[in-house]
Write a sequence for this structure.
C-alpha cells in the first residue's frame, strides 16, 4: 500500500526535476534513480509503457505518476 504523503512528495520532486513533462525516457528515470537502464527494464514492477505503432517504432516511456508510485513502495 502506498502512503499518500510519500506519493505526493515523490510526484512533486519529479515534477520539479522534469517540468512540463508527463512522461520521461527510461534513461532519464535511470539517471534520477541512480542505476542502469537495463536494471529498470528488467524489473517486472517498473512502470514502463510503450507508445507508437507496430513493433519497430515503439518508444519506451515512463509516466511520472506511475514512477512516483513505484518510488513510494
Amino acid at each position: 500500500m502506498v502512503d499518500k504523503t510519500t506519493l505526493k512528495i515523490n510526484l512533486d520532486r519529479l515534477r520539479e526535476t522534469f517540468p512540463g513533462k508527463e512522461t520521461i525516457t527510461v534513461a532519464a528515470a535511470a539517471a534520477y534513480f541512480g542505476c542502469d537502464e537495463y536494471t529498470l527494464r528488467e524489473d517486472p514492477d517498473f512502470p514502463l509503457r510503450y507508445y507508437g505503432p507496430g513493433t519497430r517504432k515503439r518508444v519506451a516511456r515512463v509516466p511520472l505518476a506511475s514512477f512516483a508510485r513505484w518510488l513510494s513502495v
Notes: The first helix runs from residue 4 to 17. The longest strand covers residues 59-63.
